[in-house]
Amino acid sequence: MNIAINGAKVTNVTIEMFYEDFLPENLKYLKGMFEGKAKELYVLVSNEQSIEYKVFVGLGKEKDLTQELVRNAVAKAAKRVKELNLEGASLQLCKSSILSEAQIIEAMVDAIELGLYAFDKYKTDKKECNTLEFSIAGVTDVEVANRCVEERKHIAAGINTARNIINEPSNVLYPETLAEIVQACGKQYGFEVEVLEGEALHALGMHAMLTVGNGSVHKPRLIVMRHKNGGEQETLGLVGKGLTCDTGGYSLKSNDSMYYQKTDMSGAASVLGTMIALGQNKIHKNVIGVIPACENVVSGCSYKVGDVVTTMAGKTVQVLNTDAEGRLALADALTYIIEKEKVSKVIDLATLTGVAGVTFGNVYTAAISNHDDFYNTFLSAAEDAEEKFWRLPTDARYREWINSDVADLKNTGAAGGGTITAAMFLQEFVQELPWIHLDIAATACVDPAVRDYEYRGGTGVAIRTLYELITK
Ligand code: BES
Ligand code: ZN
Ligand code: ZN
To answer: For the chain, how many structural domains are there in total?
Structure first.
């Protein structure tokens, strides 16, 4: 979308935000229809000389303002403008004692760029939608505002790319095509990409990852993204689970639980989205992203329950459930990023356990960490980005549950504690580096959309937080 500062291309459509405790006298006659409460929207159409549309959205109480409220309010308004087939709108900046002008603009840009996203490429009867023109009026510092618009648009481009690939079905998106997309993104947005496959992965000893993907005709790829723009600074590693489809393998999922498993590469999508934001904004940091991309399906070459595999780290794993495949692929990706890319801290993102959603629903992402300082820094970035994470404990007793009688580890724990035992399995492969694991199984996708700036399907969860963590 085009977003201009203090420009006015579209003059007959305005979006205005109001607080319920500062509602102007001349709007009080709308009582019962629009009172400035959060989530309220009212469209006033006047027809004096020419038709004018005023879209009013509510923010609630002035002292309770958050960027999230602005994001939701403006997204709701922008969607209405699109539904009404209007060309765009002029947005009036709201005054706030809580948020700075820049923070309000940030949220407005998020709202427009994310709120108007749609995944309708497979609809043959869709009507073509033009790029809408928006302008933000009433800005005092135009230079800061313009920089803000650019930066947030680039972050939103990362999120929207993540959403696109999450929403892509697995007959279109498989390891090879995912690698091609990442390569194209690297060229377009400015980061280096290397793709490893076949013999190269064997030579590295990445047998756990290779085993998971072996059943498919679409063989695994290890996708490595490098954003090296931070000179001598330390390197952060991001690992994203990239299962382009997880049928469960021989531990086959039911039809209903298989439906959304084309999204089992959402961790990969969030890592890619973050790299796009960093690349486009030319951030002066060193970040490496690694995606183990595999497809977990059934064939004569698939791995089976009872198999024992040797990981890149040399540890052996007994497979008790072929549907607990994510941790196997991630174990090798973690070893790779630590040993070959020399990162000094690592964060992994994975749609790892369905039970994460049993505890938190789609409100909080489950987190596990072996390092209090690193986790607290992450959490404060999450607070700034207004994304929600909740840390679960690790404990030696949970660790006992993944001991195997046959091998060093087994890939499922006892009944209960599934999100924790999955994370503690990964912890075995982080070599004591500061590490955070994000189990995004329940937050990577929404159906239906919960927030006004969301769209059914992929969310690009954690991208805003990771960007905040890396840049601040
Ligand atoms: N990809 C799934 C987890 C998942 C479930 C993501 C639902 C999104 C929605 C993962 O590979 C899986 O199947 N995990 C198993 C682990 C179990 C076998 C220990 C699960 O959650 O049931
Ligand atoms: Zn699985
Ligand atoms: Zn999976």
So the answer is: 2
| End-of-domain residue from the set 80, 112, 140 | 140
Together in a domain, 179 and 298: yes
Tokens matching residue 316 = 């052996």
pLDDT of residue 76: 98
C-alpha 69 – ligand 2 centre gap (Å)? 36
- Contact present, 293 and 220 (Cβ < 8 Å): yes
Closest CA to 211 of 136, 302, 127, 139: 302
pLDDT at site 9: 72
Residue 386 pLDDT level (bands cut at 50, 70, 90) = very high
pLDDT value of residue 7: 78
Whether residue 134 sits in one domain with residue 189: no
Determine whether 356 is exposed, middle or buried from the number of CB atoms within 10 Å of its CB (0-12, 13-18, 19+): buried
Q: 264 lies in a domain?
A: yes
326 Cβ inside 6 Å of ligand 1: yes
- The whole domain housing 83 covers 2-140
Assess whether 132 and 255 both reside in one domain: no
Q: How far is the centre of ligand 2, averaged over its atoms, from the C-alpha of 225 (Å)?
A: 25
